[in-house]
Amino acid sequence: MKPRVLFLCVANSARSQMAEGLARVALGEGAQVQSAGSAPSRVNPYAVEVMAELGVDLGGQRSKSVDGVDPASVDVVITLCAEEVCPAFLGGAERLHWPIPDPASDDPSLGREQLLARFRAARDTLKERIERWARERVGEA
Questions:
Q1: Which residue has the higher pLDDT, 29 or 62?
Q2: Which tens digits make up the pLDDT trace of 69-99?
Q3: Which listed residue (26, 86, 115, 134) is catalytic?
Q4: Which distant-in-sequence residues (6+ apart) come within 8 Å of 72 by Cβ?
Q5: 54 vs 137, which has greater pLDDT?
Q6: What is the pLDDT of residue 86?
Q7: Looking at residue 33, what DSSP letter applies?
Q8: pLDDT tens, position by position, 47-67
Q9: How distant is the alpha carbon of residue 105 from its chain centre?
Q10: Catalytic one of 11, 25, 81, 104
Q11: Helix, strand, or coil here: 29?
Q12: Catalytic residue at 11?
C-alpha cells in the first residue's frame, strides 16, 4: 500500500506545491498526496513555471490550510521549512523534516532569472529527495 503523504510549509505556495506535484509523479497511480500550510496564500507563478519545464502541471492545485487536513488521511507528514517555523500537524502520522530554503522572495533587487534559478534549485532538490524516498520506502520512481 502506498503511503498517504502530506507536504507542509508556511504559505503552501511554492515548496509544498512543487513537492505535491513531484510526489504524484514519483509515487504513481493510487498515491494520495496533498500539501498545506499554516498561512496559505496562492500557488506561486514561478513554481507553476518551473514545474511545467518538467511536464508537471500545477494548474489544478490551490493553496490550502493545514487546519483543513483530516489527520486520519495522512500516513507521512514531510515538513519543508528551513528558515521559518513549520506548521504543526496533529495525529499519529510519521514525521520527516526536509529543510529546503524558500525560493520566493520580496527582495526587489532579484530579477526574474534569479527568482527562476531559486525556484529551479528548490524544485531539483525536492525531486531528488522525493525520488530517493520513493525508491527506499515505496519501491517506486
A1: 62
A2: 999 999 999 999 987 778 778 788 999 999 9
A3: 86
A4: 91
A5: 54
A6: 80
A7: E
A8: 999 999 999 999 899 999 999
A9: 17
A10: 81
A11: coil
A12: no
What one-letter code names the amino acid at 84? E
| DSSP helix/strand/coil, 36 | strand
What cell was used for 18?
Answer: 512543487
C-alpha cell at 39: 498561512
Any catalytic annotation for residue 9? yes
pTM over 0.90: yes
Catalytic one of 9, 23, 25, 43: 9
Buried b (16+ CB within 10 A) or exposed e, 115-137: bbebbbebbebbbebbbebbeee
CA distances from 105 to 66, 119, 127 (A): 22, 10, 21
H or E element, residue 23: helix 15-27
Contact at 8 Å (CB) between 93 and 69? Answer: no
86 classed as catalytic? yes
